[in-house]
Design a protein that fits this description.
The two termini are 84 Å apart. This protein has 3 domains: 159 residues, Beta-Lactamase (2-Layer Sandwich), CATH 3.30.450; 130 residues; 174 residues, Histidine kinase-like ATPase, C-terminal domain (Heat Shock Protein 90, 2-Layer Sandwich), CATH 3.30.565.10. The protein is of the alpha+beta class. It is 59% helix and 16% strand. It is elongated and about 160 Å long.
Length: 544
């Protein structure tokens, strides 16, 4: 169904009301006219019937058929009379017999005879039949039957119908003219108001005003619209003043950002020195023949620690770039409130990222000592498992966002444990990095899924990825040190060994590689929800 415009709705509404009025007036008028003509016809045929009955009485008494037929010939003056029949009543048996006729006797025969003590008029088919008893000394001696045609009534009704139709058509034409005029009078100010609204929306010039051409409700609407524009114009001026204040705040913020940038750059220098020291340590270990096996360990640690350090350097560079872009926008006057808010949020996230990767660097250095299973009891604290997993994933975000792989967490919201968060962080990091470096080597878009649930007083951590999996020849030795199939690519073979030591020695748990027949790997880690519930055999000695 096509959608009507407002003007079309007005036009068709007025025409509909006019048409309804014509029907409500015309139909009762036609009905009353038809009833009126019908009543006139009945009265006329009743009068003729009574007149003929009073005149043919003597003819029936003296049995003068010629006299009765002469009387019936008078009906020629009534063209609507089709036929007339005079019946005589046999006083012995009450039988009726035709005495005299006029007109079409066949129509009279088809109509039948209605016997009654008074004049009766009935409509039979398209004719009116009137029957009047013939009296003599107050006794019925016969009947007069007249059959009148309704063709004159139908003709009068058709003429009346034609007059009503012409009047209705004229009424609709007048209503149509009024509808067009009303439509123009209503739509003109609305169209002008719409034009002004579009102009303001395109130009942002709130000084434009709509013109009120009438003092009716539409004029009040336009006046209200202009009043609204006055308020908006005042608000726009106030907004521009606030923008000037924000520009001044941006200048102050630029100075603070520069100071913080210098502090971050100094931190980057310290981190770079730390990496250099680790590389020097690696070189010394490699040069010692007795520590040849540990050379691979140091290389692995240096390789792992480069990731958070590199993320920190990248984040620092990104922060510097963001500051330059913010400064450029400020200097050329294109800095908006939205740009400023987005820049601040991005800087906060970058600083948070640098801090997390610094923490991760410390954890990686700490993992170097975890091979000897040295941990301190100060690492134990209570924490929310899901929140901590999300925090670790945040520190790995720079690494993950360069790939098309994604991580799925299935962890209850209110699950809390008392354990070593540092060890758990290293476990998650090692698992994800192994998936990225080895499992997804030939996979463009992989999935890592981590499920955690509580089973009594034990926490069960299932780790899945849909990568290439682990070769059969090393599955039995996967947790042994220096076991790797990627040594030519820089793999140290210590990732799963450190994972094993962290789970068994620090978390007092177990870790197994499950072969469930699916693509990828499935590690299941179980450790107590409360480490304090374990016996004193759990290793909690201090770090040497």
């Amino acid at each position: 169904m096509p959608k009507l415009t407002f003007g079309q709705k007005i036009f068709f509404s007025i025409l509909s009301v006019a048409g309804l009025c014509v029907l409500l007036i015309g139909l009762p008028s036609l009905f009353n006219t038809a009833e009126h003509y019908m009543q006139i016809a009945k009265d006329q045929v009743r009068t003729d019937s009574v007149m003929v009955a009073s005149m043919v009485g003597p003819a029936l008494v003296f049995e003068r058929e010629d006299m009765a037929e002469s009387i019936l010939d008078i009906l020629e003056q009534s063209p609507q009379i089709i036929s007339a029949t005079v019946y005589v009543l046999n006083p012995l048996d009450g039988a009726l017999s035709s005495f005299a006729t006029y007109g079409d006797t066949m129509v009279a025969t088809e109509s039948g005879l209605i016997q009654s003590t008074s004049t009766q008029v009935e409509r039979i088919g398209g004719n009116l039949v009137a029957v009047t008893p013939v009296l003599s000394s107050d006794e019925i001696i016969g009947y007069v039957q007249l059959v009148a045609s309704l063709s004159n009534i139908n003709q009068h009704f058709q003429q009346t119908l034609l007059y009503v139709g012409i009047a209705g058509a004229l009424a609709l034409l007048v209503a149509g003219y009024l509808a067009v005029a009303s439509r123009r009078a209503i739509l003109r100010p609305i169209i002008d108001l719409n034009t002004v609204s579009r102009l303001i929306a395109e130009t942002k010039d709130y000084g434009n005003r709509a013109k009120a051409e009438s003092q009716d409700e539409v004029g009040d609407l336009i006046a209200s619209f202009n009043s609204m524009l006055d308020v908006i114009q005042e608000y726009d001026l106030a907004r521009k003043e606030k923008e000037q204040e924000i520009l001044q705040l941006n200048r102050d913020l630029e100075r603070k950002v520069n100071e913080r940038t210098m502090e971050l750059q100094n931190s980057m220098v310290v981190l770079s020195d730390t990496v250099e020291n680790l590389r020097n340590t690696q070189t010394k270990l490699v040069e010692q023949e007795k520590m040849a096996s540990l050379g691979g360990l140091v290389a692995g640690v240096a390789h792992e620690i480069n990731t958070p350090i590199g993320v920190g350097i990248t984040a620092s560079s990104h922060l510097s770039q963001s500051i330059r872009e913010l400064s450029d926008k400020f200097e050329n006057g294109s800095l908006t409130k939205r740009d400023f808010a987005e820049a601040i949020n991005e800087m906060k996230e970058t600083v948070h990222m640098i801090g997390k990767n610094l923490e991760r660097s410390a954890a990686l250095v700490k993992s170097f000592k975890m091979v000897a299973v040295d941990q301190t009891s100060d690492d134990m604290r209570s924490f929310n498992v899901k929140e901590y997993f999300e925090s670790v994933l945040m520190s790995l975000k720079p690494k993950l966002k360069r790939t098309r792989h994604h991580v799925v967490l299935d962890i209850p919201e209110n699950l809390t444990v008392l354990s070593s968060p540092g060890a758990l962080s290293q476990i998650i990091t090692n698992l994800i990095m192994n998936s990225l470096l080895h499992g997804f080597e030939l996979v463009e878009e992989g999935e890592i899924k981590m499920q955690v649930h509580q089973d009594g007083d034990v926490l069960v951590f299932d780790y899945f990825d849909n990568g290439k999996g682990i070769a059969d020849e090393i599955r039995e030795r996967i947790f042994d040190p220096f076991v790797t199939t990627a040594r030519s690519k820089g793999g140290s073979g210590l990732g799963t060994h450190i994972l094993y030591n962290l789970v068994t020695q620090v978390l007092s748990g177990t870790v197994v590689l499950i072969d469930d027949g699916k693509q990828g790997v499935h590690f299941r880690i179980r450790f107590p929800v409360d480490v304090r519930a374990e016996d004193d055999s759990v290793a909690t000695v201090g770090v040497r």
